[in-house]
Design a protein that fits this description.
- 31% of the residues lie in helices and 18% in strands.
- By secondary structure, it is α+β, with helices and mostly antiparallel strands.
- Strands 1, 2, 3, 4, 5 and 6 form a six-stranded mixed beta sheet that branches.
- The protein is built from five helices and six strands; from the N terminus they run βββαβββαααα.
- A hairpin with a 2-residue loop joins strand 4 and strand 5 (65-68).
Length: 164
């Protein structure tokens, strides 16, 4: 733990792997993972929405599991692996879930898309052949005000079919 003399604000060194790259930062105890990703590491694909864990716009995968990064403190992510929307592509090729979102018109304003895509990817990692109900349950923590969810569900199911 490092203490900043001027303001007596305690800061902590955190080390985490983001999209395969190791990052180290000096953070205040109350810095969220969301703020660390966006403001310190410049992963702005992770969206800042409600900051209450209600909208899912800030969803990332922490050690492979979808989490609301606005509810996770940066110090809690120390030593862990984080995947953001920027880390899904492989060698410049979109992840099948990203590709399906484009092909099925599941992106309108795009604000919820990173969180939806990461929630869908996490589901397919756990269950490569989900039912429609399982897809709807997996994205239940992600709010979308534009699409009505039909195309989002279709896209995730299509990505599952593409993985077959």
């Amino acid at each position: 733990m490092v203490t900043e003399a001027k303001t007596s604000v305690k800061r902590h060194i955190v080390t985490l792997t983001v999209n395969g790259d190791e990052h180290v930062a000096l953070v205040k105890a109350n810095t969220t993972l969301l703020d660390l990703l966006r403001e310190e590491f410049d992963y702005t694909g992770t969206k800042k929405g409600c900051e209450l864990g209600d909208c899912g716009a800030c969803t990332v995968m922490l050690d492979g599991e979808p989490v609301n990064s606005c509810l996770i403190l940066a110090v809690e992510a120390d030593g862990h692996s984080v995947t953001t929307i920027e880390g899904l592509d492989q060698n410049g090729k979109l992840d099948p879930v990203q590709e399906a979102f484009v092909n099925h018109g599941a992106i309108q304003c795009g604000y919820c898309s990173p969180g939806m895509i990461l929630s869908g990817r996490a589901l397919l990692n756990r269950n490569p052949h989900p039912t429609e109900r399982e897809v709807r349950e997996a994205i239940a923590g992600n709010l979308c005000r534009c699409t009505g969810y039909v195309r989002i569900v279709e896209a995730i199911l299509a990505a599952a079919d593409a993985n077959s």
